[in-house]
Amino acid sequence: MGQLLVKNWHIALPVLAGMAAIYLLLPRPKPYPRIWGAAAAAVALLLGGWLLVHATQSRAETVLFYAFSGIAIVAGGTLVTQRNPAYAALSFALVVLSTCGLFLIQAAPFLMAATVIIYAGAVIVMFLFVLMLAQTEGPADANDRSREPLLATVAGFVLLGTLLYVLGVSYDPASPLGIAGDVHQVDRLLEQARQAVKAEPRPQKADTAAIVVGSGANPGAGLFAALEIVVAGRQQMTQDIVRAAGGDGQFMEKVAAQLSGSREETLNEMRAMWEEGERSGGPEGVALMKKALTQLDEEATRVRDTLWARTGGLHPRRGARLSEFSGPSPAGDGLRDARGSAPLPAENVASLGRSLFTDYLLAVELGGTLLLVATVGAIAIASRQGGRTP
Amino acid sequence: MNPMPVHNYLVVGAILFALGLIGFLTRRNLIVMFLCAEMMLQGVALNLVAFARHRGNLQGQAFTLFIITVAACEAAIALALILILYKNSKSLDVSLWQELREQDQEPTVDEEPLPPAPPPPTFPHLTPAGSEPVHPKETSDV
């Protein structure tokens, strides 16, 4: 246990600091000085932000992401620890607005608008309730006490630490814990080799890929090395799968055969094309070299995707579609950005509507029914007279 | 060029979820508990939208739309319940309803007294307007 904490100190430290902050700030009859809680919260935010920093350049998405998520987390903390319910409702509005900003960054403009409209209405209703019901003079049991603050805080932050650990293992590209790190390494090699392809007049001009593998003269070698890493990783993984399968190995052997029939011959073809281009020289030779590199890039991306899909555990297979009716096909395996995400359709609202009315038609009907029943139920409950008093 | 990986959005969603969980467990005001539950829903919605972006299809966004629908229903029912609970107990404190606990559970008793209420604000007393104050009669003609 202690060893696990020490090994994952980059997760444990911000979680512990956040736990201390929330515990110190929770309302109680004799509160701790607020400055302690605020200091612990600042430490937690800084450590947590440092845990998340991966982007090396300051880009618009990076700045917006940190701004919105920082506001969301700080407002969430205030919502939990604020005594006055009116301020809590305001903090909730801030959480919703910054979450909407994150939606917008993630190419979900319709959801952003819907959330703003619906939750803005909800927050206004909440304010009416606060004004109607919660206007108490002086301290009240409801606002100035907490139920079991220590136990609740520990439970929440143990959950958070576990979540962060699992996410780090399976999704964090910079984490040394999981396969995501290997794939990220291959991604960087591929990116540098792509720059080598684009270089003019000859691919040799850009030798970043060569620097990566330390082989010197041949920039294409970087890409070849990347692909070899991928293929080797795949063979290793095949062995792992067969070993892990244990007794019932028949199906697993089939899978292993499919995996290990890897593309060495394709790789050799491309290598031959590259060497021929290098020998012949001139514009044709350069074009040939570039063509070899491009094909190699596609092949490496494909193999990398297979690796990624098979190893993450939490990653579903790419290209698996829910239905044939709607939704863009996961958009061409060639069209992926550097982190491997496929592009979303530009016409967000139209695609979402098409998806709702083909794939999710029954669910939409059920949602409408649920809304109707909830309206009837709310009116029935709220208009009930009499009752008992505790 | 290194775009923001999906991991970061998942972490923010997890943090919002955990904060909402703590608030729901430990706060005693019914309205604040409800707000904390809504914040947990926001964390989940962020998670789903991040996966929609990551995988390049719209399934996550469609799920989020249904989450918003169900959250609206939940808000209606919860506010009606809060209203009727308030009517019965004249307070938003959820611990007033602890007689609903199981039979072998001890009741929670608040031992520490609440801090005294702040004294009511004192306002300055002004002279009433409309009556002419007494002033000495002017004697000099200069």
Concise overview:
With 390 residues, chain A is mainly alpha-helical. Helices cover 72% and strands 0% of the residues of chain A. The model of chain A is unreliable at 200-220, 244-260 and 328-334 (pLDDT under 50).
> N-to-C SSE series of chain A?
HHHHHHHHHHHHHHHH
Q: Work out the radius of gyration of chain B.
A: 29 Å
- Give the end-to-end Cα distance of chain A, rounded to a whole number of Å: 46 Å
Structural class of chain B: mainly alpha
Order of helices and strands of chain B: HHH
The total of beta strands of chain B comes to 0
| Average pLDDT taken over every residue of chain A | 72
Total count of strands of chain A: 0
Question: How many angstroms does the end-to-end distance of chain B come to?
Answer: 90 Å
Multimeric state of these chains?
heterodimer
Strand residues, percent of chain A = under 5%
Radius of gyration of chain A: 28 Å
Question: Pairing-aware structural class of the strands and helices of chain A?
Answer: mainly alpha
The percent of residues in helical segments of chain A reads over 70%
Largest beta sheet of chain A, briefly?
none
**Unreliable sequence segments of chain B:** none
Estimated helix fraction of chain B = 40-55%
| Average of per-residue pLDDT values of chain B | 87
